[in-house]
Recover the amino acids of this structure.
């Protein structure tokens, strides 16, 4: 028959291993909150971002641009204030000039009212001119002298005048008494023939119109090269 083992834990004498200290021993620590464990990572991340932004600002010139923009804003503000001051001064000056002009206008009106008006006859005589009182005489005697040496040129120009309505036109060559001018010219004897001479010059495209009392006809055209 087998022997029954009656020895149990209580049968042995207690030693140092049977009396361990209570609670955790050594480097063991309890569980910490999540925010406490995440905070160091957040601080490192923020510091890294700040350092990156600072580095980028320095090397890209953004900091300098910001400084320039602030300087420009300051200058703009100063110019705006100066412009406001100038506008006020201009308005004051314009107001003074307006008052002066109104005073001058009033003085002119007063002097104009005090001046006697001209009568209709005086006004009409002042407006009339010798050229307006003259009329073109298409029946005036006109001589066309050929000083160019081109045969038939005087007859051709005389025909142009006849086509324009002049009825007493003749062509001729210069004689011993004819003084040839330096350029083509239309001569007229009297002031009454001025309008007719001007019309002849316009018809022939001649620019020079002169008075001469030595010609033999009222109108004389001298054709030159």
């Amino acid at each position: 028959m087998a022997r029954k083992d009656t020895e149990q834990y209580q049968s042995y004498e207690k030693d140092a291993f049977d009396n361990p200290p209570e609670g955790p021993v050594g480097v063991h620590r309890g569980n910490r909150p999540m925010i406490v464990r995440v905070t160091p990572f957040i601080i490192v991340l923020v510091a890294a971002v700040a350092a990156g932004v600072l580095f980028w600002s320095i090397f890209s010139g953004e900091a300098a641009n910001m400084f320039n923009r602030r300087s420009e804003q300051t200058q703009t503000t100063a110019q705006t204030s100066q412009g406001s001051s100038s506008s006020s001064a201009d308005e004051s000056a314009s107001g003074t000039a307006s008052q002066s002009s109104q005073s001058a206008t009033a003085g002119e009106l007063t002097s104009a009212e005090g001046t006697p008006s001209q009568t209709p006859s005086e006004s009409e005589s002042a407006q009339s001119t010798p050229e307006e009182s003259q009329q073109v005489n298409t029946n005036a005697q006109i001589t066309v002298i050929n000083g160019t040496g081109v045969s038939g040129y005087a007859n051709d120009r005389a025909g142009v005048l006849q086509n324009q309505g002049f009825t007493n036109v003749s062509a001729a060559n210069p004689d011993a008494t004819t003084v040839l001018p330096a350029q083509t010219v239309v001569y007229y004897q009297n002031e009454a023939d001025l309008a007719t001479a001007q019309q002849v010059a316009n018809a022939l495209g001649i620019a020079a119109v002169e008075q001469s009392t030595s010609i033999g006809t009222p109108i004389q055209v001298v054709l030159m090269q």
